[in-house]
Design brief:
The chain has 471 residues and is α+β, with helices and mostly antiparallel strands. Among the domains are: 176 residues, FAD/NAD(P)-binding domain (3-Layer(bba) Sandwich); 29 residues, no CATH class. It has 13 helices and 19 strands. A hairpin with a 2-residue loop joins strand 9 and strand 10. The longest helix is centred in the N-terminal third of the chain and has 21 residues. The chain is globular.
């Protein structure tokens, strides 16, 4: 199916009254931020970043050692970045799918799959332990074929999943449309282990759990400089200072305090719409009563979920990189992307023509060339970092935090000895080369989608080298 590149007037009318704020964050249950740091303090562990990686690091650190003093510093508010702007997909995979994992860590893949399943179980257990109301549901995720040539690819994915003991099932067009009715869906393949949730409420629930365990939070507190002083690291903030024995860097796609890390990650903007609640007739017209997550398998793909109150989240397709790794609030509002998303939504669900969208927003993704999280240490092991989730941070961030804590312990563990943990992605070139290379790659991916998936020489070269660009 060819998705239009020009929105119709009807589609533009559907987004005419949207609020330009993430739906998840536009919630009356949103907690008040904690006050900023205004003094000089000391701590055993300082965490920079109040997204999922930072929150899971704080929680697991206190669970492992209740006597450890833990401080979390957040430049804005908890979940204001990617953690409150994503699609709510909580995947078991740590490797961005079996294919990617097999191509990079074939020997470790069975272990990584086991660890991924244990990680998702750990997320669910934490949600239950702390009574976090975040609409967590293990509904599975369905990969969608929009083109004939993609049907065989889905069958192969199901066969591959079976080889590794991952529960998956193929749906032909009739079965797929009986489950979710769309003329654009030619086939589907569901992976049952994945979950869907409300990401902001999960983040807020983790914050509350951390506070209960004694973590000290300081929001509105950007870290402006990092210095080493004997056995400690000094974190400078606008009104205060933290002296920490250990530091966990969890800043995602935002400019890192360790400058060299910008070579490994590019900030990619992704855009999302949320509909008004469907009426019963509208819901009946499309089905989708299992609340499965959806994502088509195009290079420029769409992802979608049905919320517990009957709204449809619809995002993806565009993956926009701005020159010089630019990250800024004004980039979160991109009318051209919102218009395209609305048009593609009604091409996918024409029976919902006339439905309105209530929210439209953008967010930045920390994309790396291996599509999966990576780790490292600095300052003689006093600092560790995790980044490069490439769109899968909702689930993988808990594992990323666990590995960071292992690295900060200074001891060899099962996790620190994984090749996935020891290795790094191939760096992206610096500017002025970065922008044209990324934009040409994106154009090549668009052409492949228009030509039955046929990849040009550039994409084949990147494939051969194990490199890529994704959101």
């Amino acid at each position: 199916m060819f998705f239009s590149t020009t929105p119709r007037p009807e589609s533009l009318r559907a987004i005419a009254d949207v609020k330009h704020v993430p739906y998840w964050l536009d919630d009356p249950s949103k907690p008040e931020p904690t006050p900023p740091l205004t003094t000089q303090i000391q701590t055993d562990l300082a965490i920079i970043g109040g997204g999922f990686t930072g929150l899971w690091t704080a929680l697991q650190a206190k669970q492992a050692d209740p006597n450890r003093d833990v401080v979390l510093l957040e430049a804005g508010e908890v979940a204001i970045g990617a953690s409150g702007r994503n699609g709510g997909f909580c995947a078991a995979s740590l490797t961005h799918g079996i294919d990617n994992g097999r191509s990079r860590w074939a020997k470790e893949l069975p272990k990584l799959i086991q660890l991924g399943n244990e990680n998702l179980d750990g997320i669910e257990a934490t949600i239950k332990q702390f009574n976090i109301d975040c609409d967590f549901i293990r509904s599975g995720e369905v990969g969608i074929a929009n083109e004939e040539h993609q049907i065989a690819e889905l069958r192969e994915e199901v066969e591959l999943a079976a080889q590794y003991g991952i529960p998956a099932k193929f749906f032909d067009q009739k079965e797929m449309q009986a489950r979710i009715n769309s003329p654009a869906f030619l086939a589907g393949a569901i992976e049952m282990s994945n979950a869907m949730l409300n990401p902001a409420r999960l983040a807020w629930g983790l914050k509350q759990a951390c506070l209960q365990l004694g973590v000290r939070f300081f929001e509105g507190t950007p870290v402006t400089a990092l210095e080493e002083r004997r056995e400690h690291l000094i974190l400078k903030t606008p009104q205060g200072q933290v002296e920490a024995r250990k530091v966990a860097l969890a800043t995602n796609a935002f400019p890192p305090l360790l400058k060299h890390l910008s070579l490994y990650v590019v900030p990619v903007y992704d855009y999302v719409l949320m509909t008004e609640p469907l009426s019963k007739a509208q819901h009946d017209a499309i089905g989708w009563y299992g609340r499965e997550g959806l994502s088509d398998i195009n290079n420029q793909f769409h992802y979608s979920q049905m919320t517990s109150d009957g709204r449809i989240l619809w995002g993806g397709y565009d993956a926009i990189y701005h020159r010089n790794n630019q990250v800024a609030p004004h980039l979160e509002n991109r009318p051209a992307s919102f218009g395209l998303l609305a048009e593609h939504f009604f091409q996918t669900f024409p029976q919902l023509e006339g439905l309105r969208f209530t929210h439209a927003w953008g967010g930045v993704i920390d994309t790396c060339s291996r599509y999966a999280v990576f780790w490292g240490k600095a300052y003689g092991g006093k600092l560790a970092y995790a980044m490069g989730y490439t769109g899968l941070g909702v689930g993988t961030s808990r594992f990323g935090a666990r590995v960071m804590l292992n690295l900060l312990s200074g001891e060899k563990t099962e996790l620190t000895e994984l090749q996935m943990v020891k290795s790094k992605p191939f760096p992206f070139p610096p500017e002025p080369f970065r922008s044209p290379i990324i934009n040409f790659t994106r154009w090549s991916m668009e052409q492949a989608d228009k030509n039955q998936g046929k990849r040009n020489l550039w994409l084949k070269t990147l494939d051969a080298l194990g490199l890529g660009f994704d959101s």
